[in-house]
Amino acid sequence: MAHSLNYCLNSGDHYNRTLSADELRAYLAELGDNLADQALLLTLLAGGQRVAQLLRPKVSDYDTGTATLRLWDAKGRTTSPREHLLPLAPRAAALVAHLIARAEAKGSPLLFSTYGQTQLADTTPGKRAAEIGAAVTGEPFDLRDIRRTCETMLASMGISRDTRAQLLSHGLSGVQVSHYDRDAYTDEKRAALMAWESRLHEIATGTARSNVLSMKQRNAT
Fold first, then answer.
1. pLDDT tens digits for 87-143?
2. Would you say residue 1 lies in a domain?
3. Is residue 209, in this structure, part of any structural domain at all?
4. Phi, psi dihedral angles at 63 (to 5 degrees)
5. Distance (Å, rounded) from C-alpha 41 to C-alpha 35?
6. Residue 81: its pLDDT value, please?
7. CB of 143 within 8 A of CB of 150?
8. Quick one: pLDDT at residue 11?
């Protein structure tokens, strides 16, 4: 197990894998109430966001009226971080509300703080994910694998490539995006995250929510 954990944490070694539904179910079952686990859960519920970005928001970056969390994406060839808005589905919104209550109780402006004013270290959730992976699957995986798993499953649900790119904030470059395409894709991202939470519910419980159509079914109607 120690060998697997070290393998997973070594940035030079990477399986480049996706998790099966059974592996994802086992991963979800291990997530508890500690702050690192809550960060991992929110990352998953939000469609596979980059943990480093998800740890940085302040309480003020969340709009309770629209259940929208604002992140800042500094990746790519940009001189300043790009605003990345996440219109959250109900379970993720409830988790953020819990984190806000925790932050307010500590007098902290941060959603993820260890002692009130200090942000949870970027590396902590990744180490925790690797521990869970080594324990429950017998094969190492890291947060890139979780992110890849989310996108792969979203694609299988019929979420378009453009919506996935907007939701996961990757591949957004070029003249069209930089100067002409100002659409925040709010409706598309919200619909995708609603469908994604339902899919995670199915995976975690082995049951389907009969009142929720898949994106493929919606697109066909």
1. 999 999 999 999 999 999 999 999 999 888 899 999 999 999 999 998 987 777 899
2. no
3. yes
4. -100, 105
5. 10
6. 80
7. no
8. 39
Give the CA angle between residues 32, 212, 166 to the nearest 5°: 70
At 63, the amino acid letter reads D
pTM: predicted TM-score of the whole model, two decimal places: 0.82
Task: Say which CATH number the domain at 37 has.
Answer: 1.10.443.10
Number of helices and strands in the chain (H, E) = 11, 3
Looking up tokens 């975690």, which residue turns up?
A: 204
- DSSP letter (8 states) at residue 61: G
For residue 94, tell me if it sits in a domain: yes
In this structure, is residue 197 part of a structural domain?
yes
Q: Domain residues for 125?
A: 21-170+181-220
Taking CA atoms, 193 is separated from 31, 70, 197, in Å, by 20, 15, 6
Dihedral sign for Cα 109, 55, 101, 105, please.
negative
Q: What SS3 string covers 136-200?
A: HCCCCCCHHHHHHHHHHHHHHCCCCHHHHHHHHCCCCCCHHHHHHCCCCCHHHHHHHHHHHHHHH
Domain count, the chain: 1
* Whole-number pLDDT of residue 7: 36
Q: Does 218 or 78 have the greater pLDDT score?
A: 78
Give the sign of the dihedral formed by CA 219, CA 182, CA 79, CA 114.
negative
Residues listed for the chain = 221
What does the alpha-carbon distance between residue 36 and residue 124 come to, in Å, rounded to a whole number? 6
Separation between Cα atoms, residue 78 and residue 178, nearest integer Å: 10
Kindly list the strands in the beta sheet with 62-63, ordered across the sheet, starting from the edge strand earlier in the chain: 62-63, 68-73, 82-87
Average pLDDT over residues 175-199: 75
